[in-house]
From TrEMBL:
Signal peptide: 1-25
Upper classification of the organism: Eukaryota, Viridiplantae, Streptophyta, Embryophyta, Tracheophyta
Gene assigned in the entry: LOC106779114
Name of the protein in question: Uncharacterized protein LOC106779114
Alphabetic keyword roster: Signal
Length: 115
């Protein structure tokens, strides 16, 4: 277990020293003067695109505003025969007791051995 801890400590120590040297190098680069940038050549001009001929939009047909006439000769609907429904059966009535019946006292069975 000690070797594992010492490996982690050595790794963190190496990481610390490597980051210190990198931060010093970054500071050194920030203190240098910026180099002169070369001038870029001008961009070429973009030629104009030719205009194409677009066909005309299709014409939407007009919807008729008047409704067609309703039919005048309506067929006769046959009459529905009347159904005779039998009467509903009556539900039997029960008398509801108003008092609670008593619970009978149960005596223990007689023992076969004497004490």
């Amino acid at each position: 277990m000690a070797s594992n801890k010492s490996f982690i400590i050595a790794f963190l120590l190496a990481l610390t020293f490597s980051s210190m040297s990198m931060s010093l190098a970054a500071r050194h680069l920030m203190q240098t003067t910026a180099p002169t940038l070369p001038t870029l050549p001008p961009l070429p001009s973009i030629p104009a695109l030719p205009q194409g001929n677009v066909p005309p939009l299709p014409i939407i047909p007009s919807i008729p505003t008047t409704l067609p006439p309703l039919p005048t000769n309506i067929p006769n609907i046959p009459t529905i025969p009347q159904l005779n429904v039998p009467p509903l059966p009556s539900i039997p009535t029960f008398t509801i007791p108003t008092t609670m019946p008593s619970i009978p006292f149960l005596s223990p069975p007689p023992s076969t051995s004497t004490p």
